[in-house]
Amino acid sequence: MSPDLTFALTLIVKMAITAGFVLAATVTAERAGPLVGGLVATLPIGAGPVYVFLSLDHDVQFIAQSAVASLAINAVNVVFATVYVLLAQKRSLLLSLAAGLAVWTALTLVIHWVQWTVFTALAMNIVVLGVCLWLVRPLRHVTMPPVHRRWYDLPMRAVLVALLVGITVGLSFRIGAGGSGILAVFPVVLISIMLILHNRVGGKPTAAVLANAPLGLVGFALACAVLNFSAAPLGVALALALALATSIGWSLAVLTARRHGIEV
Q: Model's pTM, two decimal places?
C-alpha cells in the first residue's frame, strides 16, 4: 500500500472516531439541561482525540507547544461564547453566530502573532474568564424545552467535527505546533450546539447552554496547562490522560457544588 493511501485511510479513521465521540457528547448535552450541556460541550471531546492523533506524528516538544497555543485560544473561545450569549437574547442565529465568529477570527489572528508562554496564557485566561463569567452569570438558568431532532442533525454534527480533525491533522506539518494548537480547539462543538438548538428551542435556552460553557472552559484551561507541564517529564500518553482527568474532575466539582447549592 502506498504511503499516500495509508495516510488517507488513517485520516479517515481518525475523523470518524472523533466525530463519534462528539456525537455521543452533544446528544447527552441536549437531554441534560443548560448546566450539564455546557460542561459536556467543553470537555476535550474534540481537542482530546486531535491531540492523541497529533502525538502519533510529532514529538513531546511539539505537543507541549501546541498546548500553550490551545490555552491562549481557550480565552478566545470564552469570548466567542460570551458574544453569542449576549446577542442571542434578542438576535437571530445568523447575527449572533456571525458576530461571534468575527470576534473569534480577529482575536485569533492577534493571538497567533504573540509569543505566548504557559504563564502569560494562564494570566490572560484568568482575566478573560473572570470578566465573561460575570457577564453571563444572570443568563445561565433557563429551562430547556424538549428537543425534537431532525434527520440531518447527527450527520451535520459528524461532518463538522470530521472536517476539523481532517484539517488539523492534515495540515499539522505545515502550520506547526502553534497552528495545530489553535485548530485543535476551534469551537466546533459550541457551533454545532448553536446551529442545532437556536432555531428550534429559541435563543435564550440555547444561550443558557453556552452561558455555562465558560465554567467548563475553566477546566479546559487547567487541562492545557497540565498537558504542557507534564508532557516532557511523564510522556505524552500519561500527560494526555492527566489533562483529560483534570477537565472531567473540574466539571464534576462544578456539578457537585451546584447540587449543594453553591453557585460557582
A: 0.87
